[in-house]
## 1
Amino acid sequence: MTSTSAPYRSPLLDRPGAAESQDADVVDAAGVAWHYGDPLGEQRAAHDGGIVVDRSHRRVLKVSGPDSAGFLNNLLSQKVDDAPDGFAASALDLDIQGHILHHADLVRVGGDFYLDLPDAQAVTFADFLRRMIFWSQVEVDDTDLAVLTLLGPALVDAPADRGVPTLAARTVGWGGIARRDLLVERADLPAAVDALVNGGATLAGLMAFTAERVRALEPELAADLDDRSIPHEVPAWIGRGDHAGAVHLEKGCYRGQETVARVENLGRSPRLLVMLQLDGSAPETPTPGTAITATGGGRAVGRLGTVVHDCDFGPVALALVKRSALGGQLLIGEVAAMVDPSSIPTEEGEKAGRAAINRLKGL
């Protein structure tokens, strides 16, 4: 799929009950099924047995060549120069001020790297990579690969993709239900899904994945963040211990690293990505991008991101909220909301850089 091709339409949209999202211009959902007739039941099936979700609308880029590992390591927030075959994580492209420009999921297959991201980001990301090649022995190519996502421990812990013709499979370490992504040739997409369904998976739409994405506090760049967003606003993106995240805190220099290091060592991001519980009795669901205000004063304290109905919690959303407003009652237009307490990260204590400064000051 190239940038000059017609809008993508998955062949799975011809399956019985398939319905597209009505908000595909906000959340990245155009071209695939939002559900197959039972959206809440499809999400429930992820916990009861396991589901396969068509995410073939994403673009997959291939970065290859003898210098590909060092090339990507110099440009992105993830450490990949010594990544082993099969390494899977996320990576960010930042501007010089540390603001997030692109977010991609990646996996290494032999000496090659495959990076997938929303179609709307893919053209500018590929252009950026190609402009930075200079004398490196690297090639950046579009592929005709599709992403399928398996959700549910029944499928991920005992992989049901054996026998499915996959180029790569990656187990994704995020804060939600067990997840495994498969990269398959687009021509093999229907057959791959049939094989997975025959192996015990339930075919589910992107709404089920989106609800689990909100639970996992995994943002989608266009819907959930803005042009001021920095990596530390998404705590799950900061790699710590065995969690690779999207940002490696001990790798070499890359564009935007100064902001990452400063926030990590000296302070905190002024905003956090959290999950909101929305008033389910409201007549209308608020739309992403709407300002969030504090009750009583009416001052803006954040912005709303992805909104979706969850099979357990009802209407939920991702939102960027000022730290000072995390414990209060919130309003989104006329809809009441509150921050889910479990989405607020545990404080990690005094920052190392700040402690050193205080020692020098004799505090």
## 2
Amino acid sequence: MSPELLEIFSQNVLAKLLRVAEEALEDNNPPVAYPEFVPQRGENTGKYFLREKYFWTCGFFPGLLHTLLERAVKYPHVFPFHGHEKANRLFDTASIRQQLASLCDSWKGPIQEMASRTDTHDLGFILQPSLRKDWELTGNEKSLQSLLIGARSLASRYEANVGAIRSWDVLKQKDVTITSMTDDFLVIIDSMCNLDLLYYASKHLCDPNLAEIATTHARTLIKSHLRPENTTGNFGYKGSCVYSTCHVVNFDPRTGSIKNRRTAQGYRVDSTWARGQAWAILGYAQTYNWTKEKEFLWVASGLAEYFIWRLESAPGCVEMPNTGTNGRENVGRYVPLWDFDAPIDDQTNPLRDSSAGTIAANGMLVLSQSMAALGDTVLAERYRSTAIRIVTDTLECCLSKEKAKFVDSGDKRYNGIHVEDIEEGQRFDSILKNATANHNSYDLDRYSDHGLVYADYFLLEFGNQLLRLGFI
């Protein structure tokens, strides 16, 4: 395994997350605000911005802590961190694990209480990153019950006339205001990644209706959100076409007909917003795993092929000289632009979205496992190696150079272990930089080129996938 990938399991990662988890609880316990993004410039550079707890990203920071807890419980060879056995022996691993478990409890408490929300479709993103791991690691029945309640809350947003779950109740931008619950029905491609919660709960509850809702939703979005493209797949791809994605579709809730298509976070309605494409890859790969319906497998594969093609055919300015040790002359080609069709304003520093890369890599790794199970070793290796290439390139280009370390200081925080910046005064709270939450010129909440909590979450989750597969 490359040294770049091992950074996912480093002391820097654990130290940063423990420090943020402790400090962000000050005057915020139990949490009413959760880490969302880290500015790369301006007055608050390097420090996490905390967003109110009902925002859709609230589940990812508790999820980050639980990815570390999963390592502590199941993979002690990478906990507290990988590859520094002598350094590891300086610390009380049990104390760090207990501290981490305590922090997990503090951050997941308000998340458990959100299961009954019916005002959002994002319950998969909110609940699963922490509560599913908590249930599976500790047998905490409260977390399981929150997942099951959350699935039924999500299913309450399903409309049979449309064959889909309502994503947003409202869309407000400079050029549009959509607020009617009787005339409009907004569905976004991101919704594919909330279906996993429905399938999971369906099995626990022996309730096939939840799975049927998820499957119907996935079929509807193939017709409404996926755009067949002329680009043909390579290396053994057997699908009839490849797919790009539309971000937002507004349906008539009475007839199920499409009223219009839009984008809320991409460049324009007919462009391919990179993170939307990534959500689709992961969502359809998960849907195939639950249903074993080949249609979903080839859709996921067609989405992945298009994503790969856009990476490999991107302009030369995406590449930068390699300052690392892997021997390649240039890096950066496999870190996606924020939107594959948006104009590049700065040829020396094109705007990227590291979160799109880490999400897509997770989807491709899931897809690789499915292909391997079917005996398709060519595509299994293609998606596995591409996923690793994306994450490796992302670490080489976007890993924050401002790193943290543990110091045995006698401080009672962290059970006597204190966290310091490796270079004094050089602090950056997230692991990755160069994510873009929203760069749509018409949106009222536009921010780009920053650290982002779900870029880090899917980076660490990718590492845990590698652990589950025995690659680390």
## 3
Amino acid sequence: MNKYIKTLFLAVLIGFTACSDEFLTVEPTSSQEAGGDATEGAILSNLGSAYQILLFDSYADFQYNSVTFMSDLLSDDVYKGGGSAGDQQVLYNMSQYNLNGDLTAGGLWNIYYAGLSRCNGVILACENAVGVDEDKLNQFKAEARFLRAYYVHWLWKFWGNIPYFEEELEAPYFAPQFTADQIYAELIEDVNFAIEGDKLPLQTSAVDDGRASKAAAMMLKARIVMYQKDQSKYAEVLADMEEIYNSGEFQLADYASIWDRAGEFGSGSIFEANHLAEGKDWDAAWTGYGTNLPTFISPNELTGTDLLSGSTEYQGGWGFGPARTEIVDIYEAGDTRLAASVNQFEAGTYTARFQNTGYFMAKYAAREEYNDAPYTADLNYENNVRIFRYSEALLNAAELIVVHGQAATSGLTAETCLDAVRTRAGVASIPATAENIKLERRREFFGEGMRYWDLVRWGDTALLNESIPEFSSERTWDETRKYFPIPQSEIDRTYGEFKLVQNPGY
């Protein structure tokens, strides 16, 4: 577990013990004077601070902010769960598409704006570098711009029309509000910079596990372009997926093995957030390396054995995120992904909580010996969050060929891609139709926060409307729900030419 990112953090002695209440003002992360000369050490200090944002989206800013979980809450895969509808009220309202300016994902907003600011700090330091090798400098710039695009793309997906800045801000620390399309253009500029010119290796070596790679930038570009439905760039994205496929750098690992400790940074991994079982505490809102997600989604007071996998390694948690009962039916007989994706425990071996279905998300579930933190164990599981996997590149390629009519240039076929994913799962070949490719994505990525964004970009949002009184879910999705309401507190503190405008429908 002594991976690159932790080594970098410790080497530069980053101590994020405080963060401003203002989302545009983040405390300095190195001893470099803003705008002054920057040594390689100062650049690495800033770069380490930028990477650490990856570790903050389960608990930071005194809130539970898992972007993976929040994304799944919006989908038709899981319910909110927990103690009651009012337990983490914002999450329940989120699942019902019923947020407002005073009840929105403010923690996620603050975390990713901190990420934007820290990435800007890296880029500024690179512009003022002294005595740094040019190849290293280009790599650092590419890493920072990849990370900036990654953080901003979440702000763009959730809020659309957002403040954006790339320079150091002066008091009163306001930035102009961009439209969603303007943000898209900025994202493309950043990911293209990271991809072009071989500034980054296609895949990192073991010593650099956790760092950005060219393949990771390609995967991020694919998500951004396909969500924007920018047909003019589909051919570029397919070419990127072909390059990943033809490189031979990635293989599909046994599915169950992906999610345990030994599977971290495995052959099918393109980019992961490297969590470690240490450092987070309730009173320290911007510190540490662990994740709270396993505690959050595991059944309460668990004592039983998982009926699907037969495993006894799972531990109890808080009972959020129960899987919907219909999820088990999307998997065919013999599909090994079911037992790796869903846990089922016998009634009476855990405490049933709100919206209980008897099924839970397995990939990031709490496991024995994955948490030896000396304190605040609930916040400090070491489960890495898998952000980009090779199977996504394959299914992206299949979709681009079949659904969007793109022609592969290297002989790659949609059937080849779909067959590879299904063969690894232990199920037979099926035709590479649009319907089958969409369903395969749901099976492959259940519990990874992708289903909702797929439904929105496909225009399949009618599947999100429901009236299920027995599970306290009554919701209707329309285009005004595509974006969250901007936090009212942010609107209230801006004025003049920088006055934030609330998203339509709120």
## 4
Amino acid sequence: MSDQPAASTPATSEEDVFEQKRVRLEKRDKLNAGAALGGGAYPVSVPVTTTIPAVRAEWGHLEETPGTESGATVGVAGRVVFQRNTGKLCFASLQAGDGTRIQAMVSLAEVGEESLAQYKELTDLGDHLFISGEVISSRRGELSIMVTSWQVAAKALAPLPNMYIELNEETKVRQRYLDLIQREQARTNVVTRARTMSSLRQTFAERNYLEVETPMLQTMHGGASARPFVTHSNAFDTELYLRIAPELYLKRAVVGGLDRVFEINRNFRNEGADSTHSPEFAMLEAYESYTDYNGIADLTQDLIQNAALAANVGSDREGTHVVKWADGTLFDLGGNWDRISMYGTLSEAAGREITPATSVADLQAIADAEGVEVHLANHGKLVEELWEHFVKDGLTKPTFVMDFPVETSPLTRHHRSIEGVVEKWDLYIRGFELATGYSELVDPVVQRERFTQQAAEAARGDVEAMGVDEDFLRALEHGMPPAGGMGMGMDRLLMALTGLGIRETILFPLVK
């Protein structure tokens, strides 16, 4: 039965949908008016005794012997995704939230003439239906419930899309609930994300980190170079910013003696949206006292590899770091990941030596020759843009790109042995940046100088530059221990684990 198409496919034209809604509204009214039909179209509860997945787990073996009876009576509920009504025997497929299905058989012999007639008249595809009866194997060998009683658990007024025709991309994003009903990959994405978040928290717990929460509404935007969303507080009659990063508050926590802290929460950046960027996104940031960017790179590798293990639970790759992307590609996140030099790889790719001492004029000449445009160019921005032009797209396997220009990293400690460079890395996987890590700048005097430089950049028209955060500087003046910190996009982590674009990894992405 489950391999056959639906007896009637819901219409898709606006006219037909309107007519279906009109008919379903009439059925809703009849359900609400019929006291004998339980709690109406939307009862407070139904007497479920188990779940569809649990019934399959316990009685799935019956399918090996068609026509078998279990002698066990259960009460389950699910969404009707298939329906075939015949004379004395009606069939339906009920689907649980995880996509597991079971067949319902509603017969004249078991429910009686009146109940069967009401079932045919009042139920539709898309309804949530409660059924009670014996678990059996049908003559075709399909695990089923021979219904002795039924009740509408929630009446669907809008028809489902055809369950056998995949939704277009626009509908998948705008009506994710339909995507979750219809498509296994959509449901799998949610499960993988939940397992990933649980794994990250477990890894942190094993390392004695504390999970904290910091403000999303801030009086100054900082912690990253990005354009913020601006709002207004009526209560305080002041302009506020949706945070672009939690960094400066997490560092305040470290100053206060919380030596290992992390936060997983939302960030907001008023910038473009594409396959790897979303204006609203989930971010992990973590800070650990008495380590540096090498130690924090080790932590990041462990976090991601443990997440891969969690994502593989129940698959044929369980216990490995090899993830399977949605297109079937196998991608290995195991082993120790390469750590390469930004300046060294840029020099090799450009065919000439580029160092922190290379002049802006020389870098601009290379950019002009390559057709690379750099807004408000300085040494650091030119180096990073040229590196992305020459090197980035060739990085497929996980790679830490080490040691960035000082001009683009205002919150990062000077490199301990290379002048003009800071101890920062970016982690690239699949050609996109997944995470970034620092040896944190904890000297309040140098930090003030960096903030002042940023303010100058803002005055030149750089809308992403930070201002001088006096309250954060005041915190640093009370002494912050040596520390390493990192930030990682959760949506991008899911991209690395699943091979999907960012709009697939976010359950409800922002759309225009």
